[in-house]
Amino acid sequence: MPKGPSPSVAQMSNKRFEALTPLATYLAPPSPHNRINIVTDSIGSGSLFGGVGTALIFATLLANKLGANLRIITRTERPQAENVDHILSVYGLALQGEIQFKFLPPYDHRESIDFSETESFITTSWWTTSATLASVPASSIIYLLQEDERMFYPFGDDRLKCEAILRNSDIQFVINTQLLFDHFVSEGFINIAQHGYWFEPSFPTQVFHPRPIQNKSKYKFFFYARPNNLRNLFYLGLEVIDAAIAQQILDPAEWEIILVGKDIPDIVFEGDLAPTKHENMSWSEYADLVGSIDLGLSLMYTPHPSYPPLDLVASGAVVVTNRFSNKQSLDQYSANLICVNADREALLCAMREGVALAKDKGRREQNLQNNGLGTDWRLSFADIIERLAGNI
């Protein structure tokens, strides 16, 4: 069978890094109405937790400040408009201007978007930033950076391309948490030190609060289970839970074991114990669940604390998580957060401590009342939006 023609270097590279395909754009005259754009992979139900939800909140508040419309550009899935309404309504927010949606997949060269030189683009990853940089002025880009995204990859082409974007000195960076900002500064990212802003996320009490449960027969244990997101240390977490059950730290007679995440395989723990699994939850369903949890194990092998530990402690739970780099303690958020080395024995000891604290309702409640978490997204972003508004 004859072989077809060999691909060129450009064809091979473009196929491998399809997500970096530039946005197809054309320049339009300035509009009387300003516009804020979000460029993200998806706003599907499985993508909304954490970072994408934060991007929608940030963009809405910025658009309202500027009296601008909002356009959401997705790259991998068609936008689901109802999900935006759901997120904003849960947080008591509303966009004052118009909202538009555009599906602009990298592989479809027939689709394009208009833009004017007065509008801004909020990007949500290094690859959406790269695709946007190729098509609009760098000065119009606000990169909402919520992780050291180099750590998604082994040392190779992806990591190298990611770092090149992270070191770009022509775009503005908005960093999720001071911990992550300080990490980048310590890693020598002078551009972020000079042109970056950081914020602390908020956990409004109307969303994140303990849920009263009548006739509760068992304590509830939560594990954040994402086997395909390697930084969440899925297998270490399973080993810790299995050992905790075997050692009666988590006594199945007292504890319901709940796994929450995505792509969770079927599994049984010590004693043939099958956990309860939750996937593809709506935001309100997720908030109701975390408000019922007593103890959580949520791992993140990066500098960012990640959202689930903060969601849980904001809702009254005790959480065991791991240290990394400058993330050595999370006491500034809550005394109900137990942060130890990412080591099986250290985590088991922390689980024992966590069980005792979860059962001590008085101390646990006092820690909740004294936590240092913000509760108003308007305050989280207030200073940043004021500064950005002066530059846009």
Question: Keywords, please?
Answer:
single chain, 392 residues, alpha/beta, Rossmann fold, 2 domains, six-stranded parallel β-sheet
Q: Give, in spatial order, the strands making up the sheet with the most strands.
A: 4-3-2-6-7-8-9
H-E string: HEEHEHEEEHEHEHHEEHEEHEHEEHHH
CATH architecture of the largest domain: 3-Layer(aba) Sandwich
Helix content: 25-40%
- The proportion of residues in beta strands is 15-25%
Low-confidence stretches: none
In terms of structural class, how would the helical and strand content be classed? alpha/beta
Rg value: 22 Å
Name the overall outline: globular
Largest sheet: 7 strands, parallel
Mean pLDDT: 94
Distance between the terminal alpha carbons, to the nearest Å?
59 Å
CATH fold title of the largest domain: Rossmann fold
> What is the CATH level 1 assignment of the largest domain?
Alpha Beta
| Total domain units | 2
Total beta-strand segments: 15
Number of helices: 13
Describe the overall structure.
The chain has 392 residues and is an alpha/beta fold. It has 2 domains: 17-202 and 377-391, Rossmann fold; 219-369, 3-Layer(aba) Sandwich (Rossmann fold). It contains 13 helices and 15 strands. Helix 4 links the parallel strand 6 (120-123) and strand 7. Helix 2 crosses helix 13 (377-391) and helix 8 crosses helix 11 (344-359). The mean pLDDT is 94.
